């Protein structure tokens, strides 16, 4: 006779913890007999939908779905193997088996999968690709140790140092090593939050020390890009978006989601962008530079030609920079644009954003205002531009002093005149 099998998720509203949460339980019923097992998940009673057996939290509901699949698989496996199944057999099999991975590589795989599922919602595709490299390197490290996986409960701070040395032997840069170490620490924080371990052994571990360098363009290079037009439509779009970022500070993800109704007009008639950052959800407000405004106007006119006559109001929900190709294609085309302009360094949209930060600071704009325009959650993120600017001033002064010292060592009438002219020029510049 075929057995009856049911699974029911529920909460006990009478047992509320100090933090306001209650445990989510699973009742397994086979042939009229029931057994209860904890899922390891929690929620607030107000978040629980008894009819659906789910919470309003999407991630928790996803994990409950995975738990259900685990129970169903266990039921099928026992029935196939033994020909008979009961609630006690299923419960005994599941008891102590957490829904969350308890080994390092399994945890890495689960975390990467969670990021993949959030692409287009809270995560960019580029983030997933970068973290894929972190997952791949972790697997290579474990294999190099001659292991198939590592139990999370056995991990100590020594593993952090081993992992660091693993990359140092490869000759990787400090910033690259730190990125991979961050993934390691992230997995341990996840293990703590899922109560697999009590604390993160990497919490006080030291990362590689390396001066943070940012790449940005000089004004002359930005001017070249602003005046050069590309014949290839995709390359031209990449150029326009890069220049737009140089004068607005917008990240590529924000430009990809920039609508006409994000452009607003102040009481004095000046236009500005008001939007939340895709990455951090922090609101930013940035006045439109005439060049940025001209790019928007150009995009509008191009769309009028392609889409027919439309008003700005009608276009409110329309993208300013239509996604005609993938992010990777745009990045490739941007590299071509840089070479065409004679720029030695490979162009990136991060570089454009950094260019905006350094140019704004050099123009005398207060750092607090720059932080607001760039949508930085903390001013500490903006201070890197101040460091860069100060360093450049210092280097320029060192070069001037060195040049003047050389002149003093070998004074000629012509060089004396040149020195005088230089001094006047510097005074004029200062004035």
Give an overview of the whole structure.
This protein is mostly helical. The chain has four domains: 5-94, no CATH class; 104-193; 219-381, Intergrase catalytic core (hpI Integrase, Chain A), CATH 1.10.443.10; 387-430. 53% of the residues lie in helices and 10% in strands. The chain has helices at 58-82, 87-94, 104-117, 125-144, 157-168, 174-193, 219-227, 233-248, 252-256, 290-307, 327-340, 349-362, 367-374, 383-409, 413-430, and strands spanning 5-11, 22-30, 33-43, 48-49, 54-55, 263-265, 271-276, 283-287. The protein has a three-stranded antiparallel sheet with strand order 1-2-3, with helices on one face. The protein has a three-stranded antiparallel sheet with strand order 6-7-8. Strand 4 (48-49) and strand 5 form a beta hairpin. Helix 8 (233-248) crosses helix 11 (327-340). Residues 411-431 have low confidence and may be disordered.
Characteristic terms for this protein:
mainly alpha, hpI Integrase, Chain A, 3-stranded antiparallel sheet, 15 helices, 53% helix, disordered C terminus
Specify the CATH architecture of the largest domain. Orthogonal Bundle
Characterize the main sheet. Answer: 3 strands, antiparallel
**Low-confidence runs (pLDDT<50, min 5 residues)?**
411-431
| SS content category | mainly alpha
Strands side by side in the biggest sheet:
1-2-3
- Rg estimate, integer Å: 30 Å
Order of helices and strands: EEEEEHHHHHHHHHEEEHHHHHH
**What global shape is seen?**
globular
Task: Count every helix, treating DSSP H or I runs of 4 or more residues as helices.
Answer: 15
């Amino acid at each position: 006779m075929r057995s009856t099998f049911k699974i029911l998720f529920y909460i006990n509203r009478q047992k509320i913890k100090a933090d306001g949460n209650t445990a989510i339980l699973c009742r397994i019923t086979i042939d009229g007999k029931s057994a209860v097992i904890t899922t390891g998940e929690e929620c607030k009673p107000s978040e629980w939908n008894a009819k659906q057996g789910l919470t309003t939290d999407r991630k928790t509901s996803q994990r409950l779905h995975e738990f259900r699949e685990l129970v169903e698989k266990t039921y099928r496996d026992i029935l196939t193997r033994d020909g008979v199944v009961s609630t006690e057999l299923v419960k005994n099999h599941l008891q102590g088996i957490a829904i969350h991975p308890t080994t390092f590589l399994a945890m890495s795989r689960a975390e990467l999968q969670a990021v993949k599922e959030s692409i287009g919602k809270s995560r960019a595709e580029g983030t997933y690709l970068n973290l894929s490299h972190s997952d791949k390197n972790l697997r290579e490290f474990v294999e190099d140790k001659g292991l198939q996986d590592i139990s999370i409960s056995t991990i100590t701070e020594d593993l952090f140092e081993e992992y660091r040395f693993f990359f140092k032997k490869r000759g990787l840069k400090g910033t690259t090593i730190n990125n991979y170490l961050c993934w390691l620490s992230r997995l341990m924080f996840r293990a703590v939050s899922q109560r697999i371990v009590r604390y993160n052994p990497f919490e006080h571990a030291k990362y590689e020390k390396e001066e943070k360098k940012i790449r940005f363009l000089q004004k002359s290079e930005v001017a070249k890009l602003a005046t050069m037009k590309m014949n290839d439509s995709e390359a031209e779009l990449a150029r326009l978006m890069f220049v737009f970022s140089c004068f607005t500070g917008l990240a590529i993800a924000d430009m990809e989601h920039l609508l006409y109704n994000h452009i607003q007009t102040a009481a004095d008639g000046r236009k500005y962008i008001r939007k939340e950052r895709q990455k951090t959800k922090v609101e930013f407000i940035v006045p439109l530079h005439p060049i940025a405004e001209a790019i928007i106007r150009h995009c509008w006119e191009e769309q009028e030609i392609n889409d027919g006559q439309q008003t700005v109001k009608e276009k409110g929900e329309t993208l300013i920079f239509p996604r005609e190709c993938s992010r990777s294609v745009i990045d490739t085309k941007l590299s071509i644009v840089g070479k065409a302009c004679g720029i030695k360094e490979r162009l990136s949209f991060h570089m454009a954003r950094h260019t905006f930060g350094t140019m704004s600071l050099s123009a005398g704009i207060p750092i607090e205002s720059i932080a607001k325009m760039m949508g930085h959650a903390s001013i500490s993120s903006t201070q890197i531009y101040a460091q860069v600017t100060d360093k450049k001033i210092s280097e320029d002064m060192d070069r001037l002093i060195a040049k003047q010292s050389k002149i003093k060592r070998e004074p000629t009438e012509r060089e004396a005149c040149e020195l005088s002219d230089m001094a006047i020029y510097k005074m004029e510049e200062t004035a």
